[in-house]
Amino acid sequence: VEDAPWWTRAVVYQIYPRSFQDSDGDGVGDLRGIISRLDHLSALGVDVVWLSPIYRSPQDDNGYDISDYQDVDPSFGTLADLDELIAGLHERGMKLLMDLVVNHTSDEHPWFTESRSGPDSPKRDWYWWRPPRAGMAPGQPGAEPTNWHSFFSGSTWELDEASGEYYLHLFSRKQPDLNWENPEVRQAVYAMMRWWLDRGVDGFRMDVINLISKDTTLPDGPVVAGVWGDGSPHYTDGPRVHEYLQEMHREVFEGRADRLLTVGETPGVTLEEARKYTDPARREVDMVFQFEHVGLDHGPGGKFDPKPLRLTDLKATFGRWQAGLADAGWNSLYWDNHDQPRVVSRFGDDGEHRRASAKALATLLHLHRGTPYVYQGEELGMTNAHFTRFDQYRDIESVNHVAQARTLTSATDEQLLAGLAAMSRDNARTPVQWDASPHAGFTTGTPWLAVNPNHVEVNAEAERADPDSVFHHHRRLIELRHADPVVALGDFTMLLPEDEQVYAYTRALDGDALLVVVNVSGEERAVDLGDAWPLAHDGGWGDLVLGTHADAGGPTTLRPWEARVVRRR
Ligand code: TEU
Cys-Cys with 424: which of 121, 199, 304, 398 at CB 3.0–4.6 Å? Predict the structure, then answer.
């Protein structure tokens, strides 16, 4: 138990700097704003902060398009501010993870402007340049080198008029993909990473790191949207990705890996691949973010065509990942981040049962084996934005999706707005609700994205004042992980896999056992666990360690959205 890595007991908190706290009234969050809120993080008790990108950037994708990896964007502050943030976190016993976005750069990065300067540029091969499809003229419809559909709509290829060649961008046209086949690219990235570690950061969250290796023959994919095809099999967990990550480990982390945390963001990753990424013996990364559970409510038309979650699907997914990474590798546990809608609105009930459902879902997640991630505002039970007009949205994915759907499909405005309201990334990006004042204490100016009007009730000040709040429930969950080795390291067993209402499992370590039972519904429910968890003499499950409801309730009956963590007597 003592030998287990420190991050098995840790909880990570994600900050999306644009929306966390503004210090200078320009309506955009910044580093000095974060520094002013460090006591909130201390009070919550988190161990690590993952900071979404603050590097110099044209902000086409809110900082995931980087034009200088070794400087801070003026809208967020200065390198000196960042040094102060690192020091402030370290003083309070917290670590800092930087977001590492190296599948692509901004098209305004000097590497790309050099590469674009012409076919003879020494950096031409740092990106993916290709001529038009054989026999076709540059710019002719269908002349793109592959039919791949971009994550942000349209083609993954943009024509450069000057050279008549196309460059690859899996995301926006302002995010050209780096060519990791080129060893100079890899060495430049490793040097940058060493520079940050030497400056005092404690690790990286690696953006779409499982997309960095492409099949160099660039085959077309099956058509999925109009004329566009799905290229993902040709760049997801690609042919050389494990080789690159092992090289990165040798070149960057060797000798200091123990104090660091590395987490790969890996959309589309399979369990089999995740085992390879996270098996400590392979020296790649400590853990990855998998996407299966956040795809369970995607409908036939994709993420903007959502369908209700079936609880049995969630159990099948989490159960498989718990079992699959039990003896090698490690899970990341998350509901929310800056790309996902708010869980209380998505899988909970953000009306009548907002508080209870936020606490129940947090309990369900945090008691699994793995490292939990809390996204800013999740600890307050913040909800989706509930926007009703197109002009309220800012996110490039949402804006481009609407434009494309209008040309390729017959979707009505009402249908498009419903899709965005449920799934837009802007749901997670509304400013953090600090108090009940105008703009929720986020800014004295005009916020870049509207503050949710429910901040008059849902805010950090109110949450911190109430011992029964979503905030204090998260604080207790974090405390429990720190204190209890069963939570950090115990074996996982799923119970009631066929039940559509109750999510239940046990964790066990060295004869000590915990039961987690969660009512994932607004209806009361008597729960019979049979032989899986024999009842104690008083007819109950054992000693309550942590629960969503202050008063005891029936011994084996759960109220709407009630969750209990119980220790075997
Ligand atoms: O996201 C990658 C990713 O695959 C998604 O979660 C993405 O948001 C997708 O569009 C969902 O439909 C990462 C970042 O987290 C995201 O914010 C960036 O936009 C993206 O990479 C490009 O850097």
Answer: 398
Within a domain: 339? yes
Residue 118: count of CB within 10 angstroms of its CB? 12
Q: Are 527 and 557 in contact (CB under 8 A)?
A: yes
* 512 catalytic per annotation: no
Atom of ligand 1 nearest to the CA of 103: 23
Q: Tell me the pTM.
A: 0.98
Do 290 and 429 have their domain in common? yes
Task: Note the ipTM here.
Answer: 0.97
In a domain, 90, yes or no: yes
Total domains, the chain = 2
Q: Are 253 and 262 in contact (CB under 8 A)?
A: yes
For ligand 1, say whether the CB of 208 is within 6 Å of any of its atoms. yes
Q: Please write the tens of the pLDDT for every residue from 102-133.
A: 999 999 999 999 999 999 999 999 999 999 99
Instruction: Quote the tokens at residue 495.
Output: 């119970």
Report residue 191 as tokens. Answer: 């040097």
pLDDT, averaged across the chain: 98
| Alpha carbon distance 138, 95 (integer Å) | 49
Ligand 1 contact via 207 beta carbon (within 6 Å): yes
Please tell me whether residues 462 and 538 are part of one structural domain. Answer: no
Is residue 265 part of the annotated active site? The answer reads: yes
Q: How far is CA 411 from CA 152, 181, 285, 298, 381, in A?
A: 18, 41, 42, 17, 32
**210: domain range?**
7-107+179-473
